[in-house]
Recover the amino acids of this structure.
């Protein structure tokens, strides 16, 4: 009879990289795992935040003496909050793309500068 404790658990085998996996494949796998984790965290924070703001808003409106005035004040305070959240999310996603584009442009410019400066120095020395 085989002992079940001798065989590795499914989580242990999934954490170990296979010997045939290249470094590039492991990097891609880690990036995909990080992306999934970020999506889960983002979704959790988003749901918790919206639920908290909603419950707080309902609580303030229902417990106020003047519901019309309190509902106006709640909406006046929630709109800038939502605008800030949307702006932060857009800035995060668009800044990442802009950073990648700027980084590749800088690398290209550096390579061109090295070629040009190398040819200028070479031409200056041999004239």
């Amino acid at each position: 009879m085989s002992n079940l404790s001798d065989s590795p658990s499914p989580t242990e085998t999934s954490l170990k990289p296979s010997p045939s996996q290249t470094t590039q494949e492991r990097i891609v796998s880690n990036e995909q795992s990080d992306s999934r984790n970020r999506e889960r965290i983002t979704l959790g924070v988003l749901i918790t935040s919206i639920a908290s703001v909603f419950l707080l808003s309902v609580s303030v409106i229902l417990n106020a003496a003047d519901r019309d005035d309190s509902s106006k004040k709640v909406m006046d305070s929630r709109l800038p909050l939502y605008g800030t959240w949307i702006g932060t999310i857009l800035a995060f996603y668009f800044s990442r793309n802009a950073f990648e584009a700027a980084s590749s442009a800088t690398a290209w410019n550096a390579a061109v500068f090295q070629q040009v400066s190398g040819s200028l120095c070479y031409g200056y020395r041999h004239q």
Summary: The radius of gyration is 28 Å.
